[in-house]
Design brief:
Rossmann fold; single chain; about 350 residues; disordered C terminus; alpha/beta; eight-stranded mixed sheet; 11 helices
Length: about 350
């Protein structure tokens, strides 16, 4: 198990809303709560898995952290630097420390550019290599991600989906970042290719000391690569814990439902199913009580009135649920709870 290290990324109470409809004079009719007070940390060399169903705000959160989308309020500290206080010029210089791998391995690559040009573009933007040194650096990056260094003269459409995603990874690595936000990087790939790309990411992390914020909706994939996991629902973190603890003993009802939906390999194996009734709450406008109350099988009247805070429940775990009592680290050590 890895020893605790100082946080490379610390996000506190991050909020992002989008206008929904317009009144007269262009004023928004209402607001969509895409990210609603999210706090999380990523340590150096760590992988934090961020999971949740489609529409939970995972991708918006990742892009807000990189300031590809400007958040409304909150704090984002990268290695102690407040990203929201930086000018566009200083933020652009710092972006070489933080890169993103996009979900679509074809749409994220310019079809009119050769692979060598795509990978060399970050080097040109940040002035990291002289013209005569760029071909050698591009060849190194292609070899690093398991591609033939001589394929740089080809175009993206000449590669398979898995190969295109490797090109995207090489482009992200070109500027030697310390943090990579991987936005569902294997969701559009075949299962066998998914395993190859995940193993590549793990090897690169070990070799280069990278930190990952790994966004996905597939909990089996997240379990394979993550040190810690945060579960997101309707713009909020509802549970976070070490990966082995969360998968062995999920506490939040939504986390239990997610894990119950993961297919098992053995067709003869039986396990309880957790079917969610009701409809997800509308993300538009203000909301009273717990966002999961309309679907939770354990809902109580208090859940409909009061919004549960994300509270500690033993060492390294937080849960936002009225039905899960908070447990401090000291109490967890005495009782043996985790």
């Amino acid at each position: 198990m890895r020893m605790p290290v100082p946080d490379l990324l610390k996000v506190t109470d991050l909020v992002k809303r989008f206008p929904a409809g317009q009144r007269l004079l262009g004023r928004p009719h209402a607001w969509v709560r895409a990210v609603d007070g999210v706090s999380l940390t990523v340590a150096r060399g760590e992988t934090l898995g961020l999971v949740g169903e489609s529409g939970s705000g995972k991708t918006t959160l990742g892009r807000c952290i990189l300031r590809l989308i400007e958040p409304d309020r909150g704090s984002i500290l990268f290695d102690g630097v407040d990203l929201l206080s930086l000018s566009k010029r200083r933020m652009r210089a710092l972006r070489r420390e933080m890169q993103i791998i996009f979900q679509d391995p074809f749409g994220s690559l310019n079809p009119r550019m050769k692979v060598s040009t795509i990978i060399a573009e970050p080097l040109i933007i940040h002035g990291l290599a002289r013209r005569q040194d760029r071909p050698r650096r591009v060849a190194e990056l292609l070899e690093m991600v398991g591609l033939d260094p001589g394929c740089g003269g080809r175009y993206p459409h000449e590669f398979s989906g898995g190969q295109r995603q490797r090109i995207g990874i090489a482009r992200a690595l070109a500027v030697s970042p310390r943090l990579i936000i991987a936005d569902e990087p294997v969701s559009s790939l075949d299962v066998s290719v998914q395993a190859q790309v995940l193993n590549l990411l793990a090897e690169l992390q070990e070799r280069l000391g990278l930190a990952y914020l790994f966004i996905a909706h597939d909990l089996a994939v997240v379990r394979h690569i993550s040190d810690r996991v945060a579960v997101m629902y309707r713009g909020r973190i509802v549970e976070s814990a070490r990966a082995e603890d969360l998968y062995a003993h999920p506490l939040h009802p939504y986390t239990r439902a997610l894990l119950a939906s993961v297919p098992v390999r053995d067709p003869d194996q039986r396990r309880p199913r957790s079917l969610l009734a009701g409809e997800p709450p509308s993300p538009v406008g203000e909301m009273q009580g717990c966002s999961f109350a309309s679907r939770c099988p354990l809902v109580e009247e208090r859940c409909r009135r009061e919004d549960p805070a994300l509270r500690p429940h033993g060492e390294g775990r937080q849960v936002a649920c009225h039905l899960v009592e908070p447990v401090s680290v000291e109490i967890a050590g005495v009782r043996g709870d985790r």
